[in-house]
Amino acid sequence: MLKVKKLNKIYPNGTHALKDISFEVKKGEFLIIIGLSGSGKSTLLRCLNRLIDPTSGSIIFEDEEISTLKGAALRKVRSRIGMVFQNFNLIPRFSVLKNTLTGSLSRTGTIASIFGNFSKEEEKKARSFLKTVGLNGKERSRADNLSGGQQQRLSMARALMQNPELLLADEPVASLDPATSHTVMDYLKKINQEFGVTIICNLHFLSLVKEYGTRVLALKDGEIVYEGPPEGIDEQWFRTIYGEDAKEVRIK
Amino acid sequence: MKHRHFLSLLLDTILWSYCFLASHKIIYNKIIMEIRYPEFSWGEPLVCLVLGLIVSSVIYFLLPRLSIGRAIYFKTYAQLNKPLLKRPYIYLGLFIFLITLISGLYVSQVSLREFFSHSGLMGAKRIFIALFTPNFGILEHALFAAIETIYMAFIATLFAIPVAFVLSFFAAKNLMRDSIVLIVTYSIIRFILNLTRSIEPLIWAIIFSVWVGIGPFSGMMALCIHSIASLSKLYSEQIEGIDEGTMESITATGAKPIQVVWFGVVPQIILPFISFTIYRWDINVRMATIIGLVGGGGIGTLLMQYQGLAKWNEVGLLVIIIASIVWAMDYISTKIRQAIK
User: Fold this and answer.
1) In chain A, at which residue ranges do the beta strands (DSSP E only) sit?
2) How many domains is chain B partitioned into structurally?
3) Interface membership of B82 toward A (CB under 8 Å)
4) pLDDT of residue B36
5) Residue B217 burial (CB count, 10 A)
6) For chain B, which terminal residue's Cβ has fewer other Cβ atoms within 10 angstroms, N or C?
7) Is the pLDDT of residue B287 over 70?
8) Which of A80, A12, A91 is nearest to A52 (CA)?
9) Which segments of chain A have a pLDDT < 50?
């Protein structure tokens, strides 16, 4: 469903963040991208929904070249790709329900959304997705009153509101404790399996990679150094990706 | 490297020229020669500049340890390992401070003799007695003028809010960096706002009193213009400080630009906006009293009239009313701003 060819990103300050990245993602996959901080993981993910414009290369999403889209066409593509972030990026003062409803902004008129007029259908949908991520009963709470794990689940409900075909997860558990990390990853897995949403997820922890990923992409200094099944990453590969002195940390 | 040499020599030259000019004009002409109105010609600063250049060049190349420029631009000459008073260039700094102090006292005509003169003290006594025995006969009149002032400030603030709100988004760098058109718009709006803000409301009041005539309307316009410029700046700085993650996440849902601003920016800034606005109203009430002095209407105009007639008892009452309004506004605005934090 997604084909990336020779993708390059050079920032204005000269940093060459992505170097000739090429890979493919099939429908229903749970692809995990690993690598050190600064290896280009976040940049890659943000290029896929064009939060960052790539310098060169092509991104083909469902047979459509999206790397050069602009305006309404770009927004249309973005609405089909959900995204969750390391810092959740919710609207703190808004209720859980309203935060979920922001996922339907692309279908709602500008004026209607400014006055908060979301249709009854959207609201029903939002409630059902909140149930999916286990936040039923919390609809009226303010988003900033939720715990970290709950906030990340809320951001998943917001992404689900887009009816996404692809979900990008940028370090979704990096600011959570180990136990909560597992819960959040389980919900991602659920979205992957029950809703058939393809997932591309950036992660730090190798132990989570082996448990959840169907395929792994490892980045180092903006280049792909490993592509294959999670089981394939042995001690040798681990050192290549994370450097000679790295030690694996497991979270149970 | 050459760049630094040039800058430090330039700095030294400016400092030395200043020393020569100040010593010549103030200390020599006024204090030693006691000339009341010394003649001025453009040749004097020019001569001082040349002298400064010569002296600073000599010092720069022969006595580098005395040079302030070297101390600022070159680490090795700053002599950081020595105590402050053992560094030679400090003495030049102290000398410049001393010259400025003497000139400053002289230019602002500080005079203890006049401060404690008999007739002066009598005048002060007379005016203070009058101020502390206010004439309550004009209370009604004064209160109406005070109400005029408060409403004037309120309307000025109210009119300024929507304009400043819209302008602030165009004056926020983080929303305006994506294309050339946006960057140009940003620069133009910033420039106009800075220009407007640098003109004091007092000057605006003078302009508008000619434009729309003396009275509360011109005062209101003056406050409004200045409020728009100030609020836009405060608002846009707040927008520049937002967490851009929320904007990013709303953009990622495929929302339109206006929706991104409404959901990604506005919820984060609404409370600081209210807080700034109330603070601005508070400032506007204070300024409205001053603006009245140049014909902006309200209690300030009244104050001006009684002061011109030397009716100090009436002035005393007005001062009491102005002070209580300012105090009350200050109290209320602080309370409200605390409450919405």
Assistant:
1) 2-10, 16-25, 30-34, 56-61, 64-65, 81-84, 166-169, 198-203, 215-220, 223-228
2) 2
3) no
4) 72
5) 17
6) N
7) yes
8) A12
9) none
Domain membership of residue B122 (yes or no) is no
Neighbours of B255 (CB within 10 A): 27
pLDDT digits (tens, 9 = 90+) for B110-143: 777 888 888 888 888 888 888 888 888 888 889 9
Cβ of B251 under 8 Å from any chain A Cβ?
A: yes
Closest CB from B245, B246, B250 relative to A105: B250
Asked whether B35 and B106 are in contact (CB, 8 A), the reply is: no
CB contact under 8 A, B252 and A91: no
Instruction: Decide which of B110, B143, B167 is a domain's last residue.
Output: B110
Residue pair A158/A182 in contact (Cβ under 8 Å)? The answer is no
**Confidence at residue B296, expressed as pLDDT on a 0 to 100 scale:** 76
Residue B123 lies in a domain: no
pLDDT at B1 over 60: no
Domain of B51 in residue numbering reads as 2-110
Q: Exposed, middle or buried by CB within 10 Å (0-12, 13-18, 19+), for B35?
A: exposed
Structural domains in chain A plus CATH codes: 27-49+77-242 (3.40.50.300)
A91 vs B75: which has the higher pLDDT: A91
Q: In chain B, which residue's Cα lies nearest the Cα of A79?
A: B254
The complex scores an ipTM of 0.91
CA dihedral B9, B10, B16, B19 (to 10 degrees): -160
CB hemisphere CA count around A83 (13 angstroms): 28
More confident residue, B34 or B199: B199
* List of chain B residues whose C-beta atoms are within 8 Å of the C-beta of residue A162: 253-254
Under an 8 A CB cutoff, do A102 and B258 touch? no
Residue at A152: amino acid letter: Q
Interface-testing mutation among A90, A101, A102, with chain B (most B C-beta atoms within 10 A):
A102
Whole-angstrom distance, CA of residue A168 vs CA of residue A29: 12
* E strand or H helix at B215: none
Please tell me the predicted confidence (pLDDT) of residue B26. 79
Tell me the two tokens of residue B125. 């006594």
A76 and chain B in contact, CB less than 8 A: yes
Q: B156 and B303 share a domain? A: yes
Q: How far is CA B166 from CA A189, B83, B221, B262, B266, in A?
A: 44, 54, 19, 12, 11
Say how many CB pairs under 8 Å bridge A and B.
77
Strand partners, A33: A202, A217
Do residue B148 and residue B49 come from a single domain? Answer: no
List, for residues A71-93, the tens digit of each pLDDT value: 899 999 999 999 999 999 999 98
B246/A91 CB distance under 8 A: yes
Searching chain B, which residue's CA lies closest to the CA of residue A108? B255
Same domain, B62 and B153: no
Tokens of B242: 């937002």
Half-sphere exposure of B233 (CA within 13 A, CB side): 15
B253 vs A155: CB contact, 8 Å cut-off? no
